[in-house]
Amino acid sequence: MFASMHIGEWLALLLPRQVERGLASVILIGLGGWAVYHVYRSKEERREGLAEDGGSAVAGRLSGAVQVLKRPEQGDLDRSGTISQKEALLIGLALSTDAFGAGISSSLLHLPALSFALLVGSFTLALIRVGLSLGRLASKTKIMKKANVVPGFVLIVLGVVKLFR
């Protein structure tokens, strides 16, 4: 995220203020829309019974990361129900590609790179444990099965707010 924020800072020097604000908004809206689209797309694929082979996620590191973002269950390559170190690395790569886009967008909004990257990293570490615990408890409730679109909608709303501010 720190590196992507520096790329965003460099872009901010080259672009007029209105363009950089619009670009930041478009990136946020795009990330949110992409997340929502893939939630609904994967639900539709499950309904149709179209299951992709988990081995396809190993084809290349970047394509594997994209596959994991599209279908998180692809991270469990051996279908064991647990995540090995290699699988955790693949999932981490997928999440870091997502954070890269967010970092560029954040720097275009003139957020300080080092403190923002440290803050995001700290919150990520702290909230992973909380999320795992809450996820186990809530995964069987009907409302939580629909809640996976919320992060995408939050990004879209943030992008729209920034666009008109």
UniProtKB/TrEMBL annotation:
<protein>
    <submittedName>
        <fullName>Sporulation membrane protein YtaF</fullName>
    </submittedName>
</protein>
<keyword id="KW-1133">Transmembrane helix</keyword>
<keyword id="KW-1003">Cell membrane</keyword>
<keyword id="KW-0812">Transmembrane</keyword>
<feature type="transmembrane region" description="Helical">
    <location>
        <begin position="114"/>
        <end position="135"/>
    </location>
</feature>
<feature type="transmembrane region" description="Helical">
    <location>
        <begin position="22"/>
        <end position="40"/>
    </location>
</feature>
<dbReference type="InterPro" id="IPR014205">
    <property type="entry name" value="Spore_YtaF"/>
</dbReference>
<dbReference type="InterPro" id="IPR003810">
    <property type="entry name" value="Mntp/YtaF"/>
</dbReference>
<dbReference type="Pfam" id="PF02659">
    <property type="entry name" value="Mntp"/>
</dbReference>
<keyword id="KW-0472">Membrane</keyword>
<feature type="transmembrane region" description="Helical">
    <location>
        <begin position="88"/>
        <end position="108"/>
    </location>
</feature>
